[in-house]
What we know:
- Keywords: Membrane, Transmembrane, Transmembrane helix.
- The chain crosses the membrane at residues 37-58, 64-83, 104-130, 142-163, 170-193, 213-230, 251-273, 293-317, 338-364, 376-397, 404-423, 429-447.
- Its main location: membrane.
- This is APC family permease.
- By secondary structure, the chain is mostly helical.
- It is built from 18 helices and two strands.
- The chain has a single domain (34-468), classed as Amino acid/polyamine transporter I (Up-down Bundle).
- The chain has helices at 16-20, 34-45, 50-60, 65-89, 96-103, 106-138, 144-161, 163-193, 213-223, 229-234, 243-272, 285-330, 336-339, 349-359, 367-371, 374-396, 402-423, 428-448, and strands at residues 2-3, 11-12.
- It has a two-stranded antiparallel ribbon with strand order 1-2.
- It is globular and about 65 Å long.
Amino acid sequence: MSTLPARSGVAAGDDQIAHAIAHEAGTLKRSLKLRHLVFIGLAYMAPMAVFDMFGIVAEETNGHVPLAYLVVMVAVLFTAFSYSRMVRFFPIAGSAYTYAKEAINAHLGFLVGWVATLDYLLLPMINAILSGIYMGAVFPEVPFWVWVLLTVGICTVLNLVGVKLAASMNVILVSIQLVVAVVFVVLTIVNIVNGANGAEFTIAPFISGDVQLVSIAAGAAILALSFLGFDAVSTLAEEAERPERDIPRAIFIIVLVAGAFFMTVTYVMQVLFPDVTQLADIVGASPEIAKYVGGAAFQAIFVGGYMMAVLGCGITQQMSAARLLYAMGRDGALPKRLFGRVNSTGVPVGNVLLVAAVALTALFVDLDQAASMINFGAFIAFTFVNLSVIFVFFRFIKRRGPGVWLGFVAVPAIGVAINVWLWFSLDSVSMMIGGVWFALGLIYLFVKTRGFRAPAPDLTGPINISMYE
């Protein structure tokens, strides 16, 4: 048995995680196994979300969507490595906020959490908007607001019942999505083999003479949202049965499986339609391609599968946002009475309802306005997760062997560089809106801490540091 750094004085053993976070009366319930975590992450990423961005990114990258996915997957793997490092030292809810707070600085951690909170809060809203758009296309006589209310209502009820039921539902929903997507790929391949649209298998979607690095980076910056599921999984560290083992495993499984899936689907789509301007609607390219490869009947099945993605996504997005707010409330970064409480079954009810209320703004906001605010916070969070690993190395780790330098400095530094590069590839609207949100958080923090003079929330410190001493 080892002990933590002197600033915390908390003992750590085999059951160290549960005890280390039990400094508050209310704790989350541990009920998630590896398979639950993987399916939650995949559901959060929504396998069928690959179809949302295809037309837009195909136009942006001049027909190289699979290459853009490959670039962003490599970038995410560096950050996933850092997440897997940090979750072993800080196996508590909060994700990037917790890591920056514990490893770097409590005030800075708050700002990282504030920016990340924008992403988490808005994703359920975007999901509700997409529900209205897709179902409105099939049932135009039903008002948009009906689909928004149904989507938010179902997701809220499942989250109030408990995280394990929501996770079990995701196993079913992700499976349905995967079946529909596999059928889509098979039908597309059949069309390519039959020479439909003059298509033939080629490496052009990955490499060709007209590849432009700037456009690929811009496409990758958009597609980074597709990989946010592994970040969501890290917020469930306090509800995993074996977080130190299972969350790192889940992180890499999710990124690799999703990356392979995204590249496969977009490859066959890009081969069949190398020039998306042939399509009537670039933004709605995927339903149009579904009808092309399988007729109206398959198009209906495709849209139905997409709605499974909407429901699965909404459940996990609301779940993760509520738990991020809980972590910030528990530590006093946000008002504890409002955000840092759970009920007798371990559910942060107030936070779940707050996220649902934000999601209902889908009734008044269009998709472009909502989506433009997401990427800013994602790359900020990823950057600081990588930086947190470097700070853990210099603050806490005594061993200085080549392998430790590689794992705690070199690899995270590359992750920082890649995420900053992609961050600067964002459009000006995203940068402006994200900057305003960051400024609001900075003002709030300044007022709350009386000009940064008030003491920061207590820090727990890394739990498993002895292996590097």
